[in-house]
Queue: 3 jobs
Job 1
Amino acid sequence: MPQINRRTLLAGAAATTALTAGAHVAAQDAVEVRPNIASKSILITGCSTGFGRLAAEHYAREGARVFATMRDLPRAEGAELTALAAAENWDLHLIEIDVLSDDQVSSGVAKAMEINGGPIDVLINNAGISFGGPVEIQDIEATQLTFDTNVFGAQRMIRAVLPSMREARSGLIINITSQLGRVIAPSYGMYSPSKFALEALSEGLAYELVPHGVDVTIVEPGGYPTMIWSNANTNSVALLERSDDTHTSGYPALVSRLGQRTGGGSTDPMDVPRAMADIIAQPPGTRPLRVPVHPGGKPQIAINTLTAQVQVDWLGASPFGPWIKDVHNV
């Protein structure tokens, strides 16, 4: 296996940006410096509400070319976003993509690339779904839908954008997981298992893409007041209605709270789009593998630190060592 290190390949670009990066840090002490993403083309899944909608608006406002995707078009959320883009003269394009559909993923990414005139710079896998309740009451329908959306949907998108990114030897894939993709709270059904899977998929992909100059970053939000809570409540009530006592009788306290979950408090969901903008603006080959985002506790940091060291200790001296060390900035 060739001993290829992405940081070596991109040393010239990184050196060129070093003075600028230093000036950026110094300037932050005096005034907020907004990351420059104006030259980027960014495709985002799940833009009807939440982080996806906020990111689409924020990046378009900052001058990026945004491909905002959502399922089931036409719909009110799409019409609102299109009208806003027209009023503000944004370079924003609404595309129908249901991440459960191979055909829509393929045609939607092809349409974005045609409009862009080449590869997409950034893919943000944001679309996600959640059911609450104990693992035992998660029937196969709920389990399959959770993994098909949160894991297989991301994989469909990754496979659609990567050939052109690899050919261009540039690009960034951001996969939005959760702090619950690294730590476990009871009664979140298959949400944590699916986000753990997306974490593993993302890390393996990051190693494999080092020789191709494509970055992967995992964004791990804590709780924020987005539609995921009410959507999860709706899903959980539907799950409970088709369940029976065979599985629900063992968990009366947990089952009684299904459909009533709220979260996020007064935190600002814009934290996540802003954090991703910072990642996008960083020089290629320097972006972190994982970025926890929340103003409060981030319990996954200790796990992230430990597992990075384990990976380097385990594989650092192997033929994969240069890739592992590159991703973990060793």
Job 2
Amino acid sequence: MRRTSDLTLPRMKVLPTKRGFVAALGLSQLVSWGTLYYSFPLIAETMVNDMGWSRGDIYGAATLGLLAAVLAAYPIGAMIDHGHGRKLMGGATIAASLALVVWSYIETMPALYAVIITLGMLQSALSYEPAFAVTVRQLGVLQSRSAITAITLWAGFSSTLFVPLLQFMLDSLGWRDALLGLAAINTVIAAPLYLWAIRPVNLTSEKTHPISSTRKSRIRPILCSPRFYLLTASFCAYMALFSGFTYHIYPLLIALTWDTQSVVLAIALIGPAQVAARMLILLFKEITIVRLGLLAGMTFPLAIVLLKAPPSIFTLAIVCTLYGAANGIFTIVRGMAVPELLSHHNYGKINGIMLIPMSLARAAAPWLIAIYWAHSETPDGAINLMLAIAILIPVLFGIAVNVKRIR
């Protein structure tokens, strides 16, 4: 094995243990999701009031940003398969911080679109998918389930911490200075952790290098499997619901009840619910991915249906708790579906191919829900659309796991 010079890993001679890797990647994911994803709905609502722009125009920028991320899905997966996760995630974090700073100075709609599109592409390198791919590559398939679960435990606190924090920053500083604060948090915490936790390409075990032609040839049978397409369709429905719920839950609950404090409190419960569900997964390791997927999938429609109940702090709390628990479990299912239900090899590439339609669904959902909401002129229109999407998740997943797997 070749010796590693200080130029390869500057001033970072001590490599993390498995626990250190999981903790560092989990904390950096918590910050990435909080600063780049959960922050958007709150900032968007503030900009609607401050700039006088329509909600549809602002969410149109988010949709274009998520569409731009589609172009990066497969190349990102391939880069991680070849060991470049450290440069990718560390560099994307620094670039995202710069984009947040630029966002704080924008005055025109074209400038907003340029910044949001840039952030959308950078998010594709900092979301769960690249983090899962890095984990599988660095730790191997056998240790990945517990590691991925633990990483999402950390990241599950993102909305709990950042929604109240950002609301406080918006109230006391305004949206422009709040963006500068998010950029500082992202740069000081997330970037160094990514660079420390993820091994450089020449320090990764040769056993994990996906270079052999034998492994490459195994992608084609996967792409011919009905299970691959049915799982992808289920995950597309999940991504559409996740994106639509994340971007619209704040304005939707505000439209149902004008009690801002109750809304923020209810949304803050999503994180603890995710964490509690993932802790149960750690306690009951014998539960299969199939059962977890069906359980979580059936919980999504139940949570959305409760939005039709008379609004109160109690019903809003139940909605967010059920959604958070289901999302916490299904995130693990999505992360382990490729190695456990499709193939142990070429995780990044297979996941990258699946991410193309998934990213399209994630990009289209916020805009479509916003348009349908405006067309129906009532929050019930948005709720009905999300309910239809939620029902597709367990139906498609159930069909997929009952289709014969290609070996």
Job 3
Amino acid sequence: MRRKASLILLALAVFFAALSPLLRWYAFPRLAKIPAHQYQDMVLEAKDATLLDYGTMRAKKVPKVSIVQTLRGNVEASEKIEKTEGRDVVVWDGLSYVQGPDGKMVSKIPERYIFDAHTQEPVNATGEMVDGDPVERQGIEFKWPFLTEKRDYEYFDAQARITAPIHYQGTQNFRGVEVYYFEQTIPWTKVPFPETMPVAGITPESVAKTGTTRWYSTVRKFWIEPLTGAPVYGEEIHKEELRGGTLLGGRDKVTAFAGHVKMREDYIEHTVDLVKSNRTLVLLLTSYLPWGFLALGLLLLSLSLYLEARSRHPGDPAPAETTQAEPVSA
């Protein structure tokens, strides 16, 4: 009976020991993915910013500029792309809407971002665009991969339509969460005017005829929770200028926007709470369950060996053997 029990325990030990690496290295990469229907929004603010007054074409100080960023999962589009790509794909339709202190629109830039649901690598498919311009992204945007590493990544800049390194700068603690800090600098770069201009009747084409160009520079900062790859906080030191042409009345350049853009406090709290919750789920698949199954397998193996040893050395003494007397002949 003990030997039978030890064999059952041995089989269970082998099962859980084999399940441990399978869960971590096989199941997790397939189970961890971004849902196709995900929706999220975020509000950022630049206080004491500089903003161009298009009425006078002069830069002025304003108390606040707000940027509302939304990302909406397009399930129908992702399903179409998945049929041709043969993998799980997420399509995010994003919008960056900038408004001044009076609530009026300063700019709005839509974009479509297509990426692999598991690795967050970009998927170059039909429909990928920024403000109506077709693009082929190289590098990540918005979301870092699960199990982010301490290294530099390639990050896509939607304003300049270019990919540039974003550098790992160290590990920090952000409101009780261990995060990796990344920073990217985009030097002054000539960029297109938004398709939707803040003044009625003015179009990018009409501005181009004046010879005036738009330039942009930023220092982008992200604090990333490494297990989920989710940004818990972000900032940008953002600058835009109009340069040359007859639109500026003989001036070389004028500041269109300059400000230190930061996440609004209520969105920071919501993001940190959400990341902490998702972090627990990732830990369950990458650490808690694999190590738990391995420990359980070792425990079952020990019990199996113990019962096997007991079956070979029973505690009760063996009964004494009786010797049969030999017959005596006459």
